[in-house]
Write a structure and sequence with these properties.
- By secondary structure, this protein is of the alpha/beta class.
- The protein has a single domain (4-142), classed as Rossmann fold, CATH 3.40.50.
- It has helices spanning 15-28, 66-75, 93-106, 125-133; strands at 4-8, 33-37, 46-48, 54-56, 58-59, 82-85, 109-114, 136-139, 157-159, 162-164.
- The strands form three sheets. It has a six-stranded parallel β-sheet, with helices on both faces. A two-stranded antiparallel sheet has the order 3-4. The chain has a two-stranded antiparallel sheet with strand order 9-10.
- Helix 3 (93-106) runs parallel beside helix 4 (125-133).
- It is globular and about 50 Å long.
Amino acid sequence: MAELVFFSGTMDCGKSTLALQMHHNHAARGRDGVLFTRHDRAGTATISSRLGLARRANEVDDGTDFWAEVVHRRTHGRPVDYLIADEAQFYTAAQVDQLARVVDELAVDVFAFGISTDFRARLFPGSARLVELADRVEVLQVRALCWCGQRATHNARTVDGVMVVEG
């Protein structure tokens, strides 16, 4: 049975590394997947990790329709067994609804990766909807460190090296 899984954690805890590893593992077993991302640090249409791993992906924008993408590929003879959805916090709630529909009606596994909250500890729209709809939410266990050396628990925003709490 296909499932929608949301892998969440703070910045620098290995989400994109895990996304690329999962793609590698599934592809090595003969499964066909499609990679998606939005606003990756490496630029458009790339999933990259801070470890130096990178892979081409489909860039998501507000007009991306995941249901239509999968149906189009399948009707043109290209199998789709799973989707990797990186930087999913930037997806719209409607796009997360599409991902859930792909799982439920097309039996395609969806592995979504993203941070849950912004620097004000407010849920991103995509993350909020993933928490509501995911079959499983997994908080990554790699402990990212704060600049103070302690375990990171939230994301921070800095401007000119100074942490800000508004904006």
